[in-house]
Amino acid sequence: MSTNRRSPHIPRISRAVIPAAGLGTRFLPASKATPKEMLPVVDKPAIEYVVEEAVAAGLTDVLMVTGRNKRALEDHFDRNHELEELLGRRGDTERLEKVRASSRLAMMHYVRQGDPKGLGHAVLCAEPHVGDQPFAVLLGDDLIDPRDPLLPRMAEIQQRYGGSVVALMEVDSALIHLYGCAAVAPVAGEDGDIVRVTGLVEKPEPGRAPSSYAVIGRYVLSPEIFPVLTKTRPDQRGEIQLTDALGELAQRRNDGGPVHGVVFSGRRYDTGDRGAYLRATVRLACEREDLGPEFRAWLREFTATELG
């Protein structure tokens, strides 16, 4: 293993930031009055899976960066006394525990982004809360299966080397233009899932991607990201890209860097567009002990008769 062990001098991450200010236009009209993060994946809002992942990694202080018409997010993670009393009077303990679960998950905080200036700007809104400590960022479009924990591995690498860590996944070269893409170099003495990021390109043009490693929605960031984000120029859409700031830190290496990548090969459920959202719902429903057997039987019959 590498001899670069700096863990005694690097504070462990304890806070998570979840950007949730987007308008969710891909899911209109469903997202007209309901935040896309509150759309159910089986019977639980997508955002609850994300908070559960943060908590499972030991991050119980969660800041959600929201926008207009996102009040439902705060309500979901708050107590609903009237509903709890009703379920209690009925003796419906199973549903009562499900209702209470979301309000007991973590210490929730909220800040409004205000202007829709991109992911980098959303992360910048978290600076007053996280201060000078490293922190995790979890995007709600990516759901990571709890059987394949990713954040603990990322936190371990950040604790070892300092700087920032991004989650990477190999994707087909025909799809890499849909993602931020990382140029990488091997790290001596490390396992194959750890690489050093030497550069980042946001949605590279076809044929010009530096690798097949796509950045997915998990980050562990050092507080040095904030002054870089402050100076990062907006792109053509007026958005401040987090990948641009991380790319600059990757080239600095020692001044706010380095940036490492954890190559993830586990189960990931994409809820970023309608087709992927439907596939994620079907996959998770099939794996549920209470729903799976009956649902899988119906699915087999449906595909045999309707699609066969």
TrEMBL record:
Which reaction is catalysed here? Answer: alpha-D-glucose 1-phosphate + UTP + H(+) = UDP-alpha-D-glucose + diphosphate
State the top-level EC class: transferase
Q: Which InterPro entries match?
A: GalU_uridylyltTrfase_bac/arc (IPR005771), NTP_transferase_dom (IPR005835), Nucleotide-diphossugar_trans (IPR029044)
Keywords carried by this UniProt record? Nucleotidyltransferase, Transferase
Q: Which Pfam families does the entry link to?
A: NTP_transferase (PF00483)
In Gene Ontology terms, what is a biological process of this protein? UDP-alpha-D-glucose metabolic process
What would be an example GO MF term here? UTP:glucose-1-phosphate uridylyltransferase activity
Q: What is its EC number?
A: 2.7.7.9
Family indicated by similarity: Belongs to the UDPGP type 2 family.
PANTHER family, sorted: UTP--GLUCOSE-1-PHOSPHATE URIDYLYLTRANSFERASE (PTHR43197)
The name under which this protein is listed is UTP--glucose-1-phosphate uridylyltransferase
